[in-house]
Design goal:
Helix content: over 70%
Number of strands: 0
Oligomer: single chain
Largest sheet: none
CATH architecture: Orthogonal Bundle
Low-confidence stretches: none
């Protein structure tokens, strides 16, 4: 997916059409412009994020278990859908500089639900008191970066980097996140 590789600003409608085997006019016929196409892509990302929230809320454990489940689920989501993780990162980076800001932010529904869960954790005394958005930024940042930085991490580690090392690093980052967030 080109948006996941180069972001909104780094891709033209013509390139998107070629990647799909369509003419630029066909793409524009269905989506009117690149922003509408990108919006449709982000809607899919939001749906996948909202499914995480649903599974976390259906977790039979207490709020502390739900917060742990949120962290683990976002790690798994990033690993299983690295293109979606890339899109979240690009969206967070590019939104500030985009010439025209969207009237509504496609990722807002999932983000609002995650924030509500964090606030619930804070009310229960499970999550450290601070701005809930800061907690979510930490979780989203760590989970998406962990997956996207694997080539850099492999170079930093300087030894054979296979699934065993990857699993160990994921576990370590999850444990550090839990210690930083959960009281």
């Amino acid at each position: 997916m080109l948006f996941a590789k180069r972001g909104f600003c780094g891709v033209s409608i013509s390139e998107l059409g070629r990647a799909c085997g369509l003419a630029k006019s066909s793409v524009l016929h269905h989506f009117c412009n690149k922003a509408r196409l990108y919006s449709a892509v982000l809607d899919r990302v939001d749906e996948s994020l909202e499914s995480i929230e649903e599974s976390v809320l259906n977790n039979p454990g207490d709020i502390q278990e739900k917060i742990r489940s949120l962290i683990a689920s976002l790690f798994l989501w990033s690993a299983e859908q690295p293109e979606h993780a890339c899109l979240v990162v690009f969206e967070l980076l590019e939104l500030r500089s985009r010439e025209r800001k969207p009237n509504h932010w496609n990722l807002a529904p999932a983000v609002k639900k995650f924030l509500k869960l964090i606030e619930e954790g804070q009310s229960a005394g499970v999550v450290y008191e601070c701005e809930p958005a800061a907690v979510l930024e930490l979780i989203l940042g760590a989970t998406t970066y962990r997956v996207l930085s694997e080539p850099v991490t492999a170079a930093m580690v300087g030894k054979p980097y296979g699934s065993r090392m990857q699993s160990k690093l994921n576990g370590d980052v999850m444990a550090l996140l839990e210690r930083a967030i959960i009281q």
